[in-house]
Amino acid sequence: MQRLKELLTIEEKRLNNIKKLVDDRLKDAPSGTVRVTTANKKVQYIQCVEDDDGDGYKLSYIKKEDIALAYRLAQKSYDQKIQKLVDRRLKQLDKLTEEYEDNEIEEIYNKLHPNRKTLIKPVEIPWEQRLEEWKTIPYVGKEFAPGIPEIYTKKGERVRSKSEKILADTFYDMGIEYKYECPLKLKGYGVVYPDFTFLRKRDGKEIYWEHDGRMDDPAYAEKAIRKINSYIANGIFPGEQLIISYESSGVVISDKIIKQMIAKYLF
CA 105, CA 37: separation in Å to the nearest integer? Predict the structure, then answer.
């Protein structure tokens, strides 16, 4: 699974932060535990402290004016349970993170001699092969109406706007393969032509990028919203398989924003 190691590292960091919090709190925790009982419909708190010889417990009711002690003892019990769980999980994660590599199954095949590879059917198609097969699937894009300015990308493709050229050239410069206006059928809407389509390595899913460049035009914005809603109705959600960028006449997309979105959604 791609990026699992990254997720494991993130989880390890989260657990270490939790561990530091509870470890610090337990340093100043009071002795004993708290029992919670009810008598005559009134809640009572009892502090239980183990005897020095370890044979029993000393019990004492916590008075109303000392109720803060009950809170601290309850917190201590909770923190101890969290501490125990976190310590166990960190040991498990440490071992798994040390041993695990995202592409370890693929690497077994990649390291084989080319002649031996011809004899083997891998359990997972190597990424480069999958990407190449995806790239070579033919498609017919959306036609250009006559009279529209001709704008071409570094890849040599014609696009419809300067903003699309900026996006396409950024993908090209970063070595990101894409398809421009590859048709996609959305149930209840018909065929759409996402501005860009990608095959994402980390999960093998097709990702669609729509750039809405005239959001201050009410008619354009309304059409864009209907289109986005149709993606959602077909199970393609923004932030998951759908990337959306926006512009208006007064606000243009920046190179920094584009690269931030690429890092977030395409890698």
Answer: 56
Contact 179, 215 (CB under 8 A): no
Residues 43 and 150 both lie in one domain: no
- What confidence tier does 226 reach under pLDDT thresholds 50, 70, 90? very high
What residue numbers bound the domain in which 251 lies?
138-265
Summarize the confidence of residues 13-36 as an average pLDDT. Answer: 96
SS3 49: strand
Type of residue numbered 167: L
In what order do the strands lie in the sheet containing 206-212? 179-180, 196-199, 206-212, 242-246
Q: Does 186 fall in a domain?
A: yes
Query: Tokens in use for 261?
Result: 């979105």
Which tens digits make up the pLDDT trace of 174-199?
999 999 999 999 998 899 999 999 99
Give the end of a domain, one of 73, 99, 125.
Answer: 99
Pairwise CA distance, residues 74 & 59, whole Å: 15
Residue 131 lies in a domain: no
Q: Please check whether residues 148 and 261 belong to one and the same domain.
A: yes
Residue 111 counted as domain residue? no
When pLDDT is cut at 50, 70 and 90, the band that residue 2 belongs to is: low
pTM, rounded to two decimals: 0.71
Q: Which of residues 78, 99, 120 is at a domain's end?
A: 99
Burial class (CB in 10 A: 0-12, 13-18, 19+), 59: exposed
Whether 162 and 225 share a structural domain: yes
Of the candidates 125, 120, 227, 136, the residue with the CA atom closest to the CA atom of residue 184: 227
In a domain, residue 78? The reply is: yes
Angle between helix 255-265 and 162-173 (nearest 10): 50
